[in-house]
Fold these 4 entries.
Entry 1:
Amino acid sequence: MMNDKKSQRQGLNCPECDFFIEISIPQLLGCDDFMCAGCGLAITLDRQSSRESMEALSQLNVALDNINILKKKYSAK
Ligand SMILES: [Zn+2]
């Protein structure tokens, strides 16, 4: 699956391990949190205080400004 169309992939890079978390906007809006498959970092969307930023989520790269990162690492590696 080596597509050149990187820009087609929706998601964000994990701030912890830089793993690309592939998640679509509907997915992101539909759940309160999600987890990095790379390191197990739990990322929680702070939707109450970021109502306006929900629009910014259409540019998911901005999303990291508006989410809370919970360090919940799994020791398995
Ligand atoms: Zn990670």
Note: The pocket of zinc ion is lined by residues 14, 16-17, 19, 36, 38-39, 41 (CB under 6 Å).
Entry 2:
Amino acid sequence: MTKNGKEEDPLWDRRLDKIIDDFLHLGKCDLLLDVGCGSGFWMRTLMRQLTGTSNTIGIDYDKSRILSARKGFKRRTEFVIADAQALPFKDGTFDIVTCRRLLMNVKHKDEVLGEMIRVSRFRGICSCVEPDFKNISEFSSVQKESDIYKKIESDSEADLEFGPKAASLFLKNGLQEVDVWSYCMTNKTLPPYGNVEMNRLHGSRSLEDATKKLLTNISRKEKKALMMSASKIDEERKKQIKQNKYSKIEIIPFVVTKGTKSKTTTSTYSKL
Ligand SMILES: C[S@@+](CC[C@H](N)C(=O)[O-])C[C@H]1O[C@@H](n2cnc3c(N)ncnc32)[C@H](O)[C@@H]1O
């Protein structure tokens, strides 16, 4: 629990807050934009370090996520429905323009980064936080749970290993003083489960449902077999949770990349 009695963000290690603060110079930021903010997870992390006078705006093209983000924030934050490829802001508006797990998901990365650069002020910072799921380590007390997760993840259309590639995109787009810092996010679900663990356990969708939605061209027979083993894993997981025996640890590498906009920054994106 936090000091004000609210639930901690289950996915964030608070020890990283200070490092993020130093890396992105949040203390010097008056106006920050979070692109593809979703329900505001990254914004919440950043706001813990921003000074009392700084303002933040989050944009996302998914209305339901924006509505949910609006519910969670009361002060100094505005949430706008907008496309990252056409940001509704004037050139040079923000001190920091940031995104987390956005660039890995978008097809036109140059366009999105180009827009982020356009709305940054000169000497402002553009940054992204992207994972390197190729090097994820998982342990689960339910046998083969991790194997099925890997199969589901590899089915994604996103670039799951974009984290280490972001710096080259930043350099290609003319950002200066490009710097990279990496860390591992650790999700621990170990008994006895507190509220955070219980929320995570009850909030996660069943593996059977996830395998049903697999897009990959696998044969019907293969998919049926996969769904059957997913269903068995779901059952075993439920049983272990009831008995307070289920444990899982995921170690997920993330890469934070930043660059500074200078007078000579010329994005490869033609609208600039
Ligand atoms: C994986 S979520 C990450 C959300 C949040 N940044 C976080 O770290 O928890 C990616 C988000 O990017 C949004 N998104 C993807 N493409 C977008 C685009 N072209 N314009 C605006 N938002 C976009 C999605 O709607 C989704 O909310």
Note: The first helix runs from residue 17 to 24.
Entry 3:
Amino acid sequence: MKVEKYFTKKIIIFTIVTLLLVSSVTAINIKSNNNTPPPANTSRNIIWNTTLYFTETGGRNDYITFGESPNATDGVDVFYDKSNPPSGPDPFLDAYFTTNFPGPYNALMQEIKEYPDTYKEWNFTVWWTGSDTTVTITWNITDFDESEYSAVILYHNIGVSSTDMLATNNYEFFCPGSGLVSFQIIATANRPPITSNPYPENESTGVERPPDELNVTVEDPDDNTMDVHIRWKRHDYYHFGEFVTLQTYNGVGNAVYNFTIPLGNNWIWGNTTYNWSINVTDGTHWTNETYQYTTGGSRYDVNNNDRVNFQDAGLVWIHRTSEVAYDGIYDVNQNGEVNFQDAGLTWINRD
Ligand SMILES: [Ca+2]
Ligand SMILES: [Ca+2]
Ligand SMILES: [Ca+2]
Ligand SMILES: [Ca+2]
């Protein structure tokens, strides 16, 4: 009938138009997906992650991924930690991280922990349901490039063998038939050396001229060997502010390191603030600390006998620039030369 035909035609046209619309919308969706990464990836902010690939001799395989993000925790993160999916048909090779989280997060195919840290552990198990085989684990060493760890060690719990995952990219082990094999990964960061207990005490005053020595306690939390440099900031006019290395100890361990102060005019200035520094490296990090102390007595006591009198004034006069080489201790007004003004000031400031 004509009316029926008319409606049939309308329905067909409507269907075609609808299909066209739907397909064009789908096309737009696909395009926009291709152009902009899904928002989940940008907010995940995974600093580093590594995938371990497991392959057994017969060709069965599996993989697990671990890593760190500042937005993840060492506990369950629904957003980051992925539970282990069901295994395939027998025989299967199933690798998964084991945790003390409630199910289904007690077995994970991806475990992301909090970044950064100085020590972390991941535990994983390999479950094999076939007969005796050899399993090879491989990973990409460069995946650790952005990690904060200086050592990532793979421990094979049932044996004594372990592998430095930053140096080697695979590990092979015998897997007994229907066996469960446990592993542990321990990641540790190299921590910088620590300096403490400077002598003379930092910012101390009234310090004797000179103190016997400068010393400081130096420790590396990882017991790395260190290079220790003791430096001193000059305070005489022509070299003011220059750092001079007093003593270096190379390849040393945790101990107190010192510099014995020599007899000499540079060290006996009264009422003067001395700055010194300790610079320590464990080969990776530098720890630099600057300390200061202020001597007791008077700046005019140039012969360091705890009195300012005609002797000091006389010595300053004798050492004036026109007669002898510049010596900072006699330049009591710190203007780069020793002359009658310094001698006069010393005389005026006598006890
Ligand atoms: Ca986690
Ligand atoms: Ca260290
Ligand atoms: Ca004196
Ligand atoms: Ca002067």
Note: The pocket of calcium ion (ligand 4) is lined by residues 331, 333, 335, 337-339, 341-342 (CB under 6 Å).
Entry 4:
Amino acid sequence: MKVKIRCPNGEIKTPKECLDAEKSLPTPILKKVLEGVLKESTPRDRVRFGATKITTNCLRQSFYQITEEQILDLDKLWILSRGHAFHDHFDFGKNEVFVEKKFKDFDVIGFIDGIDNNVLYELKTTSNIPEEPQDHHVLQAQAYYSMYPDKDKIDKIMLVYLSLSTIKTFEVPKRDIIPWIESRGHQLATALKTKTPPPKEKTWLCSYCPFLDICENHKVEKKESVKREVDKILYNKKEKKKVETWKDIFNNG
Ligand code: SF4
């Protein structure tokens, strides 16, 4: 993911430039807020996804997160940083447990927030605690459970929503979703390899998606590139009949 920061004065900077130039926040706070995006990613031989790229409500969004530049407001980064600070507040028997699962053409990794007394905890910091747990949060907790090598010792999965004023917990069914993770991961890995976004998975969350414009316009771009290819073939090979069939397919697609 290529990240740029929108500074309070509206200028777009790299995280490092923002750290050096931004004076509206005290440096220790700014450093903490930018911590996650200042880290350089290590080049790897194998494709590796964080579990949330798979358990998200939309794989197409994960594709854009990996391939497109994202411009983030400092406020958004503060919300993420605040969530981490909340999580560090609790002392589970085991905190931040790293899990990894290797598949044929990619790996999936994650960090379980806490395991205590054979209960696996996934924490979510939010300003509005939902009435029911959100599907992608349930799947994330189940993915961590599925990837945990000692899952036989886990009695319960608990999803905990935390706001500044209250806490709500939900028990999540224990479910091994490895086959589902493998199938979604394979779909995302193939999309990256072929540079073709996965199909849209539209929900009410689309209106909050930072890639809404790119996502909506992609079909137009695809049609344009297909048209260019078709024109090239028409010109080079005069395969008029075949080309008209293609045009029909894409104009109706
Ligand atoms: S706008 Fe909706 S369908 Fe498109 S990438 Fe975002 S979440 Fe997915």
Note: The chain has two domains: 2-210, 218-252.
